[in-house]
Amino acid sequence: MDDAILKVVDVSHSYYTKKGAVLEVIKNMSFDVKYGEFLGIVGQSGSGKTTLLKIMAGLIKPLSGKVLYKGKPVTGPTPAISLVFQEPVLFPWLTVLENVVLALKRVENISKDEMIVKAQSFLDMVGLSGFENSYPGELSGGMKQRVVLARALVTNPDVLLMDEPFSNLDPLTAISLRREIDMLRQHETLPPTSVVLVSHNVEEIVELSDRVLVLTSRPAQVTGEIVIDMAKPRDRRTPRFYEYVDAIFTLMS
Amino acid sequence: MDVLATVTVSFLAVLVSFLRMAAALIVSVLFSIVVGTAAGVNKSFEKVAVPVLDILQSIPILGFFPVAIQVFYAASPMFGAELAAIFLIFTSQVWNITFAVYESTRFIQPELLDVANSMRMSAFERFRHIYLPACLPRIVRNFQPSWANGMFFIVGAEILSFGDVELKLFGVGTLVSEFAVAGDLLGIVTVLLILVAATIMVNVLLFIPLGTMFETAGPPSPGLLRRFAFIKKLAKPFQTTLATPVISFFEYQRSVSGLVNKVSVLGSLVRNLIFLILIGFLATLAITRGNEFFGSLYQTLGRVGVDNLLSSAVFSFVRVMGAVGFSVAWSIPAAVAIARRPQLSTAVTTVFQVVASIPVTIVYPLFAETLKDQPELRAFVMILAATQWYVFFQVLAGLKNIPRSELEVADMLQLKTWTRIRMVYLPRALPALITGCITAAGGAWNGLVVAERLVLGDLVAETNLPGLGKLLSQLTYAGDLLGSVSVLIVMSSIVVLMNRFFWKKLYDMVASKLKIE
Ligand SMILES: Nc1ncnc2c1ncn2[C@@H]1O[C@H](COP(=O)(O)OP(=O)(O)O)[C@@H](O)[C@H]1O
Ligand SMILES: [Mg+2]
């Protein structure tokens, strides 16, 4: 059996701009996301990373190629694959708890009470106990991102896709959230099996990933792959860390 | 009349009415550019102009009859009738355009004006290169709703009478009423068909292309160096851009609700009173030459009757709210159904905008027989015609403006249709719905004057139950100036009070519940 939980097979995608021109964003891309791995994908802004994640999540249908989840084609969004968007999008008229419960509405055979208990436990896990009844407008950017994370995890997905989740946070908040994600990964029993993190920030990719794919600028293609063999949590100040960072920069330019 | 003659005369009638409409629209645009820009540029003029505009737009067409006759007809009986009609059409077309110009010129980016200062542009150059280009897109998008509004009242403008003076001008309104009185069904159908064809043509050939003309590239790029290029670009007015969706009824509502929001409640009530009494006073003085003025002031209230005013107000209120409620009931499901299907919503929008500019007043004779014993139903349908489109287009615009990211999250979470509507669509549509209702209710109050009592020449259809529109119509056609002023005061006060104490409160409540500003 294959060791890939998610396979991207020869995917290409283009947008039509308002002026009618064709913008080629992703070109013949193929790679695997393995069981249990933390995969980093790094590419410059505008290279097509968000588009790639949306395709992997089933939100966008690629013009050609396919995405396989456990061998079966992904044809639309599924609770098994969760996507954390670049901007923390929460519905302002719903409380934090209601926002998380919303993700459970599609799950069958679960009562309202069970939904609330489950949502509550995931909010506790991301450190938001006591904020269940707050509204998103009352939260800081970092807290919103945690709610989004809880919402993405509450359905026990096998694959968690994250689109630059730290880019809109101040540096300190970003550090603590990265640490938290690292710690969540240590939990053997907790979902998700695999994580894909997309970013233009090489340091944060090196800090968190087991393996890194480097993309070209648009149209995105995979130009290189680097396995990061360092114990976690990783110290950004070590020479080893910088060797990886340099290696990736070399591939990107 | 043989068929050929019927067709010819119908064609001419539509042509003449459309020419009148076009003349009024041109005057409206000129008036709006002058008054709107002045209000947008000059702070002291703004203080006077905005409240006055607010009052004027709340006066139904009948309220302008005395002015039309006293000023235009009295001045020159030869051209006066024609001028009076054009003036009346103008009063139902102009206010939203004026307010759009005011807003466009008032909120021009300050940086642009700084650049103009540093370039030492003259007043004319400023107007030509900054103010005019800034307001053109919104002027153009207000054409269609203004036209629809003008057509709604065209019958009143072409057949106007005030006391002893009765003017009847050749046009669709007059022709249809003559056919109706003569029982000439073929004639009515002919006029209607030609009118519908002409309306479709004007929309397809003129308004729709004009409205989408400004829908080009994205917003102009920032940066100091680009600013000069930006001015140059603005100088070619047809290249300016606006990012708002092009639904002209949405434009109309934006203009009108903007106007409503600019004026304080007590202020507008007091001003209403003073303004209307002043007009009534002056006009009455002019008519009676001062002799009987004070006597008649005293008599008016006794004659019209306070209880009569109140009961009429109650019935009208129920009709208006009924029409608004009905509009809401069908608009929400309809808009939800089409909002996320771009082609379908473009098609529906186009069809609805054309349908909205076919006046029910002229369609009515076709159903006169059927509706003869249903005066309330007839009135309701007519109020609805003056109401529903604002609600529908506003809800549609609200739904279309839902942030893309929220829709993506809804997709990602696989929200089922009903959850999606309840948790995402409705909360986003609600504020828009309420602002739509404000405009719709305003339109409904104005529409009452033809809905509760339709005067199509010798064909008069009125509700059995009382109503302010009916009362106003009776008093105006009877030439009772002070009587109609008193009805106008009651009517516009209700509109102001409703806006402030009901709609605004409702909006604030919804906004705070939805955690939006
Ligand atoms: N819906 C869309 N329509 C047209 N162009 C788009 C759309 N979404 C993204 N693009 C364009 O595609 C390119 C890649 O976008 P994106 O996937 O967001 O890149 P990244 O996430 O790497 O910054 C960009 O140039 C962007 O402007
Ligand atoms: Mg992106």
Automatic annotation (TrEMBL), chain A:
<protein>
    <submittedName>
        <fullName>ABC transporter ATP-binding protein</fullName>
    </submittedName>
</protein>
<feature type="domain" description="ABC transporter">
    <location>
        <begin position="6"/>
        <end position="242"/>
    </location>
</feature>
<dbReference type="Pfam" id="PF00005">
    <property type="entry name" value="ABC_tran"/>
</dbReference>
<dbReference type="InterPro" id="IPR003439">
    <property type="entry name" value="ABC_transporter-like_ATP-bd"/>
</dbReference>
<dbReference type="InterPro" id="IPR003593">
    <property type="entry name" value="AAA+_ATPase"/>
</dbReference>
<dbReference type="InterPro" id="IPR050166">
    <property type="entry name" value="ABC_transporter_ATP-bind"/>
</dbReference>
<dbReference type="GO" id="GO:0016887">
    <property type="term" value="F:ATP hydrolysis activity"/>
</dbReference>
<keyword id="KW-0067">ATP-binding</keyword>
<keyword id="KW-0813">Transport</keyword>
<dbReference type="InterPro" id="IPR027417">
    <property type="entry name" value="P-loop_NTPase"/>
</dbReference>
<keyword id="KW-0547">Nucleotide-binding</keyword>
<dbReference type="GO" id="GO:0005524">
    <property type="term" value="F:ATP binding"/>
</dbReference>
<dbReference type="InterPro" id="IPR017871">
    <property type="entry name" value="ABC_transporter-like_CS"/>
</dbReference>
UniProtKB/TrEMBL annotation, chain B:
<feature type="transmembrane region" description="Helical">
    <location>
        <begin position="344"/>
        <end position="367"/>
    </location>
</feature>
<keyword id="KW-1133">Transmembrane helix</keyword>
<dbReference type="InterPro" id="IPR035906">
    <property type="entry name" value="MetI-like_sf"/>
</dbReference>
<feature type="domain" description="ABC transmembrane type-1">
    <location>
        <begin position="313"/>
        <end position="500"/>
    </location>
</feature>
<dbReference type="GO" id="GO:0055085">
    <property type="term" value="P:transmembrane transport"/>
</dbReference>
<keyword id="KW-0812">Transmembrane</keyword>
<feature type="transmembrane region" description="Helical">
    <location>
        <begin position="269"/>
        <end position="289"/>
    </location>
</feature>
<keyword id="KW-0813">Transport</keyword>
<keyword id="KW-0472">Membrane</keyword>
<dbReference type="InterPro" id="IPR000515">
    <property type="entry name" value="MetI-like"/>
</dbReference>
<feature type="transmembrane region" description="Helical">
    <location>
        <begin position="379"/>
        <end position="402"/>
    </location>
</feature>
<protein>
    <submittedName>
        <fullName>ABC transporter permease subunit</fullName>
    </submittedName>
</protein>
<feature type="domain" description="ABC transmembrane type-1">
    <location>
        <begin position="14"/>
        <end position="206"/>
    </location>
</feature>
<feature type="transmembrane region" description="Helical">
    <location>
        <begin position="12"/>
        <end position="36"/>
    </location>
</feature>
<feature type="transmembrane region" description="Helical">
    <location>
        <begin position="423"/>
        <end position="445"/>
    </location>
</feature>
<feature type="transmembrane region" description="Helical">
    <location>
        <begin position="481"/>
        <end position="503"/>
    </location>
</feature>
<dbReference type="GO" id="GO:0005886">
    <property type="term" value="C:plasma membrane"/>
</dbReference>
<feature type="transmembrane region" description="Helical">
    <location>
        <begin position="185"/>
        <end position="208"/>
    </location>
</feature>
<feature type="transmembrane region" description="Helical">
    <location>
        <begin position="48"/>
        <end position="73"/>
    </location>
</feature>
<comment type="similarity">
    <text>Belongs to the binding-protein-dependent transport system permease family.</text>
</comment>
<feature type="transmembrane region" description="Helical">
    <location>
        <begin position="79"/>
        <end position="102"/>
    </location>
</feature>
<feature type="transmembrane region" description="Helical">
    <location>
        <begin position="309"/>
        <end position="332"/>
    </location>
</feature>
